[in-house]
Amino acid sequence: MQHQEKLKNLASEVKEKARAKEPVTFRKKSVSHTVPDPKDPRFKKKKIDLSSFDQILEIDPEKKICRAESGITFYDLVQATLKHNLIPMTVPELKTITIGGAVSGCSVESMSFKYGGFHDSCLEYEVVTGTGEVMHCSPEKNNHLFEAMHNSFGTLAILTSLTFKLIPAKSFVKMEYVSKDNVGDYWQFLKERIDERDYDFIDGIVYDKNTFVVCLGNMVDTAPALSSYSGENIFHRSVVNLQTDYMTLAEYFFRYDADCHWLTNAIPPLTWKPIRKTLGKYFLGSTNLIKWSKRLRHALKMKKRPDVVVDVFIPHENFEKFYEWYEKEFDFYPLWIVPYRYNQPYPFVDDDFAKGMSSENLIIDFAIYGKANNQPDIDYSEILEDKVYELNGIKTLISRNHYSPERFWKIYSKERYSAAKSQLDPDGLFADIYTKFHNRTS
Question: Where are the domains of the chain?
């Protein structure tokens, strides 16, 4: 169907649901990248099918602008924009993250030290409100609603299309891997690279208490040889054995996808080359791994608590302080490190809380993927949440949350969120953001 026809049908369906006062959630073609919770009440709600909203509507190579439907994955988007030697300004590292999901949630990766999140490249959103109206918002028109869509997690309106900037691309990426043996030297080197902006891509991996690696990449036109990490080879295990590396640009963007970072470490046979070669198409890749985790969600009820899988954003001034606490209290590796610079505090953050964040608008994503959380007297997700709050950081809402309403609204701007909610979803067709995520505490 053409976009306008799909849009009309969706608006009509939303109006029908609104009249019936039926709370809803969404069904998309791609998998959800929130962490599965077997007791999540959203599994029982009626779903609005958004799976057809997955097309590119326009690419303007001269203006370097793209307009696309919200459900297109970054993998498909990159394949299309590369034909024009262009790429999005921010490309999340898993293939089936959608552009709508990147705006509604969190989109941090190795270009974020320059460009922030994907939403920072966006020029306009088309949305369907909770009353079934179609609305357009941009920095010039309905700016307060445009800003409110970031980090709203589908609780304000349905994103249907986005217009966003593109940047020039080259065919390959040359990687350099620099190792340090202590957190002080590591942070000093990492901060210098962030400030110098002399690379296109910067992230890092901490392997243990003595092995800290900075991953530096630049786009280049030629490559003497190419590595691939979409099959038998594992990216994060290769980094410690290399000083330089070359990949195609598309391969680089999704270098973590086959293992969903390192979640396959929890299932050792999936890290063995013979198994990866013969059964990889059934089990490897973020889509397969997330689907399997959802299929097994009922079995997960037998666990005392789900594993800790979450990103936390720490003000750069507290990098060493947080890491030293993490090393002592968590002692779980690998740990993904992603620098993230924003132009100004995001409106979803409470003004008073934002004052205590980074003086340079620079935060560091510490991505913790797979820490076991089964000790009887310690809930690691809860003590992590408390520590992040203590250090004026923000924990993403993709997994278990323990916030009281009072603490939650000290971090998030209740005034701005409520104002957007009353305009976009006055009758509460979509859950409010606290209700949607505070249920994920079991």
Answer: 3-168
